[in-house]
Please model this.
Amino acid sequence: MKGLRLFAALAFGGSLLFLGLGFIGVLPWRYLALIGLVSYLVFLLALRSRRNLPGDLILTGIVGLTLLAAWLGHEALWLFLANLCALSAWDARRFINLLAAQDVLQEGNIVRLHMQRLGSVAVVSAVLAVFAMHLKLQLNLWIGLILGVVLSLGLKHISGLAMGTSPHHRGR
Model:
């Protein structure tokens, strides 16, 4: 479990670093460092205490700040990496709380499998994000809405297959 806590702390630190790189030129470094340090300390305290609210609020704030920075036209790659690290830290922290709430046999194997899935999702997300950043398309509103609905239905179906709740899932 210590390795998972270390991963969550490093991922959150990475999200603050990438968020700071996304805001270069907007705020002086000393303000960015102070905001980052306070956020990091609150996150570490939340990680130790198994309370979800402080960590969730900070991670939601990071996602909100990356959206604001993207809207203001800052570098998309840094902001994507900040979001990816923040969501990875959130996932790891939630998984730590889930493991602590139950008696788990073979905890090391479960953590390893979870981290492999998280890593594969992060890699696929990064590849798709880099591809999307370099792809230039013009879509009208209706095509965007249709693609959004199809994507949502596809993700719902895939998550149902992964959880074993899809009507197409065959039990073992």
About this structure: Residues 40 and 150 are 38 Å apart (CA to CA).
